[in-house]
């Protein structure tokens, strides 16, 4: 996320919450980032968001070919 968007997000937070709530949010984030508290949910994975199909393998249920495919005749 670009810094410009983060700045706008901070301004939005400040407009929506009173000072006491912002101080609580700041303390909670600080505790989480310093490892004093567990993440309540897993943080976003930027790589997974950019490449959602990375390593999504599926197996073809049909049997493999045992003979070469026949060529179609042009008529």
Which features does this protein show?
mainly alpha, 45% helix, 3 helices, elongated, 75 residues
Structure characterization notes:
The chain contains 3 helices and no strands. The chain is mostly helical and 75 residues long. The model has no long low-confidence stretch (mean pLDDT 84).
* Main sheet properties: none
**Arithmetic mean pLDDT:** 84
Write the H/E string, N to C: HHH
Portion of residues in helices? 40-55%
Number of helices: 3
| Low-pLDDT regions | none
Task: Summarize the helices and strands and which ones pair or pack.
Layout: H1 3-16, H2 19-33, H3 46-50
Q: In short, what is this structure?
A:
The protein is mainly alpha-helical. It has helices at residues 3-16, 19-33, 46-50.
